[in-house]
Amino acid sequence: MTISPLQQARVVGVHATAQAKQLDRTALSACLEAAMGALADAGLTPADVDGIAGRWPGPGGTVMHPGSVDWTSLLGHPLRWVQDTYPQGVPAVLDAAAAIAAGLCHTVLVVGGQAAIRSGGAVAAYTRPDNEFVAPWGAFTAVHFAMVAQRQLHLHPDYRQGAAEAAAAVRNRGHANPDAVMFGKGPHTAEDVLGAPMIASPLTLLDLCLATEGAAAMVITSADRAADTRAPVRVLGGASEWHRQQYVDPARHEEVWTVGRDAAADARRMAGVDPTDVDVALLYDINSFEILRQLEVAGLCPPGEAPAYVHDVGIGEGSPVPVNPDGGLLSYSHIGWGGPTLKVVEAVHQLRGEAGERQVTDAEVALVTGAGSGAQYHNTLLLGA
């Protein structure tokens, strides 16, 4: 196996603020808390940071998003590297690892989050982008995924029950997690999911992720510098697959149902692991059908068998590969630009053995994913204890 330069990187600090439906604070204050918390977790200070990937939440600064360079003012010194293309989650980790391997920087802070997102209407404003082919028809994020799910359901009707069982399993993990926005709001059954109010057919309210407030951050550095930190987690491998710009042209099932499969295979080859080596999966559960799709894309079960896998093997507590022990985007939290980073935060907690009541026993390899079919891109990251 050829050793990838990305494997020189380590995730050395993570932090998530309190997550809530609404926070009585600004997005900037939440992001600052997350950033300082991640640095403290790593035993570092802002002076140690020479790279940034963090959408500027305002106020002030540039109006040309993402605007990561605006963070230099708060960090108090110039930076050597800035990631301004997709400053969150898996892509931010992979780009930071590549920049560190190339010698462009040595320590990268990734931060994102949101607050005060409610602006009237039933859905958050950021789920209704003013994009070509979207704004004229009033479409919102869930609709793009619903079109893909509807076609899958037409071809394979058993995915409706399987998706409901998957949603219930993940939501019940959030029901038991005191840090989750939906703590104590369950337990749920598949019948609850199927009977919930319809939002975008076939997706009901309980099939869909949250739109909440809070922030998350992580710190990535080189293996040499990580040796002096508290509990580094290894970057084993990762890859991305981009089909088309998100939420512009409608997603077509035959083009996107398997998006990310090649990226998952590339990540496994880079890491030198098989799907059977994965101990815990932090899947990007923007809706229940995506859980099924990503189980197949990641190789955790064969194509077409996700409903049977969820029913017979299970994805909840005690399953061979627990999925989203924190409750995921469905029940823990989804904070916009910080949402994908929450997946890495939970993976690090699991690999360090510090996840408390939701800890997966002897977790050594964690799978993290981002985005999905309706967004028309998908990314995969493998982390090791």
Automatic annotation (TrEMBL):
Keywords tagged on the record: Transferase
Top-level division of the source organism's lineage: Bacteria
Ribosomal protein listed as a keyword: no
GO molecular function: acyltransferase activity, transferring groups other than amino-acyl groups; FAD binding
Pfam families listed in its UniProt record: Thiolase_C_1 (PF22691)
InterPro entries with a match to the protein in the record: FAD-bd_PCMH (IPR016166), Thiolase (IPR002155), Thiolase-like (IPR016039), Thiolase_C_2 (IPR055140)
Keyword Transferase: yes
Gene3D superfamilies in alphabetical order: 3.40.47.10
Listed name of the protein: Acetyl-CoA acetyltransferase
Domain FAD-binding PCMH-type: 198-385
